[in-house]
Amino acid sequence: xxxxxxxxxxxxxxxxxxxxxxxxxxxxxxxxxxxxxxxxxxxxxxxxxxxxxxxxxxxxxxxxxxxxxxxxxxxxxxxxxxxxxxxxxxxxxxxxxxxxxxxxxxxxxxxxxxxxxxxxxxxxxxxxxxxxxxxxxxxxxxxxxxxxxxx
Length: 151
Description:
The protein is an alpha+beta fold. The protein has helices at 59-68, 122-138, and strands at residues 2-10, 15-21, 24-31, 48-55, 76-79, 88-92, 103-106, 108-109, 119-120, 144-149. It is globular. It starts with a strand and ends with a strand.
């Protein structure tokens, strides 16, 4: 399975993008802003191609397991081997306060050139895309995320 994030708008606080799954639009994304020198928890990951795996430990995992149960939640979607970064996840959230370098997903997005970046309906988007990615990983398929910068 191929995931692709096309970053289309960057501001001083956030980066907005589009997530495609196997070439089809899936949802909007929000990440921290670009920084030449990384600031822990305040910097988006570099463009590149990364494997996505399930991670079944950590605070996010236990919160999602409690909320969704073990039939739905099999682990967090973790973006692996990002140079200079660890524990990068794909998860729910609405603005840059909800991410520490992770990729947030949502069904609506504002214009982060006018106001602070925000994506809405994050839970709906996450609940829709998670099973596709989860099931591919559980089948043993390779899942890769390509991050492309257009801003």
